[in-house]
Amino acid sequence: METNMQKFLIVVLSVFLVSVLWPATSYSQGRTNCFGYEQVLERLVVKYGEAPIARGVDANGHLALVLANADRSTWTILVVYATNNVACIVGAGFDWEAIEFKLPEAEPDLQSF
User: Whole-model pTM above 0.70?
Assistant: First the structure.
């Protein structure tokens, strides 16, 4: 059973991955990995047994969605554009694993960076 911290870290990791991968797969660039949201979701559910496990919304109202199957063997990260309900696959792969990350007890000295 995942703790709230694990769920939080999944969302943080997902948002980070989307922010890194998003520019390379922008819908405005006419990439072929963008389809209607319902079409993409149905395919991921039926073919791969994936279901949403984390989500986040950016300042423009676009949805970042992470899906994985029950045994965590496949995962997909989507960006769903609020303006036209188009979903773009920005990442997909195998061996999804939720990790537990422990924050340091002391505040780091950010001025040393």
Answer: no
